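As a warm-up, study this chain.
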Amino acid sequence: MQDIRWNAFWLGLLLVFICLILWAWQGAVTALMVFGISVTAYLCGHLYWLHKLHRWYQKPSLSSIPNGRGIWEDIFADIYHQQRRFSRNQAQISSALDRFRHAASALPDGVVLLNGEDKIEWCNPPAEKQLGLVLNQDTGQPITYLVRHTDFIKYLQNQDYSEPIKLKSSRNPEITLEIQLVPFGGKQKLLICRDITQIEKLEIMRRDFIANVSHELRTPLTVVGGFLETLMDMDGAIPESTRGYFTMMSEQTGRMRRLIEDLLTLSQLENGANTPQDSEIDMGAMLNMVMNEALSLSHGRHRISLEAAPDIALMGSPEELHSALGNLVSNAVRYTPEGGEIRITWGLRGKLPVFSVKDSGIGIEQKHIDRLTERFYRVDRSRSRETGGTGLGLSIVKHILTRHQAKLEIESVLDKGSTFSVIFPESRLILKQTNQTGQ
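Now compare it with the structure written out below.
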C-alpha cells in the first residue's frame, strides 16, 4: 500500500506547479480559481469515500464492503483482509467457548461464571439444580439476589476464597453444598458448587462412632485402672517379682484413658457441641497456670521463662484456650531434652495479639510441618509413646483456634528447636488500662 502522505505531497506539488504556470500565462485570478476548484474536488472525493466507509461500518459485512478508487482502493482492501481475519478469530473463539460450555455442562459439580460486579454471566445445569438458578432468566442478576444465605454473602464480601464454605441448600435443607470462589482474569470469579451430602453423612457417622466407642471404653478402663491402683497400694497384694508388670499395665491403662479423653474432646469440637460463650480472659492468670503446669511436667529438667505484656487481654473461651495453649507448652517440654530452654511469650505483633512458645528441642523436618495438625500424625512414633503423647493434641489445638478465628504458625529447624505461635485476630484483642502508681 502506498503512503497516503506521499500521494498527497506529490499531488499537491503537481497542483502548485500547474497553478504557477497558469499564473504566468493567465494571471493570478485564474491560477487561484483552478487551485481552489482542484482542492475542493480532492476533498469532496475523500468525503465521498469517508461517507461510504461510515455507512459500511454501521453494518460491516464482507459482501458489502466498497471497492474504492485510488488510495481508497488500498484502504478498503486492507479493511477487507482484517475483517476476514477478525471473522476467523471470532469463529475460533466461539468454537472454543462452545467446547468449554459443553465440557462445563458435563461436569457433576455446579459452575457459575460471575463478572466483576458479581453478576451471573453463565452457569451449567448442575448449578441450576443445586442453587435454584435459571440461566435464561437469571443472566445479568447479582448472585446475592439468588443465593441469599448469610454465610455466603459474608464469604463473598470478605474476599478470602482460600477455603470453601458449607451451606444447606435453600431448595432442600437435607442437602449440604460446598461452595468455593476462584478469582480469575480482572475481577471475574468462578463459583464452584458441589453436593457433599453423602460425605457429610459419612463424616457424622465416623464422629459418632468414635464418640460412642470412646464413651463406652471410658468406664471399663476407669474400673481397671482403679483396681490396678488399689492393688499396687496394698501391702503384700502384689509379689515384688510381678510388680513391674502391674506398673506397666497401670501406665498403659493411663495412656488409653488419655487417648479416649482426647478423642472425646476432639469429637465435641468437631461436632460444634456446647459452643462456649466468649468472655474476657485474664491472660496473666492463665499464663501463670500454664507456666506452673510446665514446671510441674518438667521437674526441674528445663529452663522455662515467661514474658507476658500485662495490659493485653483476650475475648474467648477460657477453658478451650487454656487447653490449647497448655498443649503447646507441654509439647515443648516433652520434646526438649534435659537442660534445654523453653520461652513462653505473650504480646502484640503490630495490632495482633500473639502467644508464642519457643524451645531448644529436637526440631521438626520441614516435610512434617504441614501435617502436624492431622489426627494421629506423629513425626516419631516411638518417641511419642515414650513421652505419653496421643497424636491428637495439635489436632485439638487446631480446632480450638479455628473456633477463635486464630491461626497457628510453626517454625522449626531440625536439632535446633521449634517455635509455635498462635496469632489471634484484632477483633478479640482487649487493651486494659494499667495502674502506673501501683508498683
